[in-house]
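User: I'll paste a sequence; please echo it back and then give the predicted structure.

Assistant: Echoing your sequence first, then the prediction.
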Amino acid sequence: MDALDQTPLHAKHYADDAEFVCASILENVRLARSTYRLRFGAPGIARRVTPGQFVMVRLAGLDDPLLGRALALYDCDPAAGWVDVVYLAHGKFTTALATRQPGDRVEVWGPLGNGFKGDGERLDRLIAVAGGIGYTPFLAVAREALGAASYGESPARSPLSAEEVTFCYGVRTADLLAGEADFGAAGVDLRVASDDGSVGHQGLVTEVLRQALEETASGSRRVLVCGPEPMMQAAAEICAAAGVRCDASLETPMACGLGVCFSCVARVKQPDGGWDYKRTCVEGPVFDASQIAW
């Protein structure tokens, strides 16, 4: 093995192939309370991005806020050259982004991160679990797993594949539920939980996960999770007890998205029993949940 291949800071571990574009906004539409879908034109990114990857987005021509924000792929159309991301308007950047109109421009770099990967097996059931805005990576995952879409240019990719996809989606209340029509159109078995009982199961989304696992105890399964860290940890523990692999897409705040600033590190277990910091933006955002030192 080349000595450089063993160096964590070797250039191949950075986002060498990320594309930077000043993209035109095509759509910026409200999906639910404070939740918006942004569509922008970026043909190069649309051809290469895969489920679970993300892009960094910032407002063109402005330096306040200066830093971009990491937004996961929601969907894309490689032929038409557009990419969709979904965001929650709650801070300075996202509140300003919600006011932008078609024809305005955003600066985008990507695709970034490792994304979700399969291992050649066709699962009986793929179960995705999300809390709040953590639902955004799972539409593309589901569409590809069910054979309704394909993503990325690389013929060497091994995407997730499943006979059925169940999506356990937790929200605080009904008016924060977004994207249900998109998941329905994709053929996903959508199961909703809400804190206040205004929609779906009243209680924790992990309770819905537990039920879904019990229904498929004899089949091949994998769980994907994204959302608040306590929820992801609870889901990982449920999966470990059931002997089911769980992959977690971390939402660690990022500053650069390129692996340079080390602001997005997560603690990942090592073979010697200890742990080390891994950068969510380049070694992640998807990690084997059993390897995360929660």
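Confidence is low (pLDDT under 50) at residues 1-13. The radius of gyration is 18 Å.
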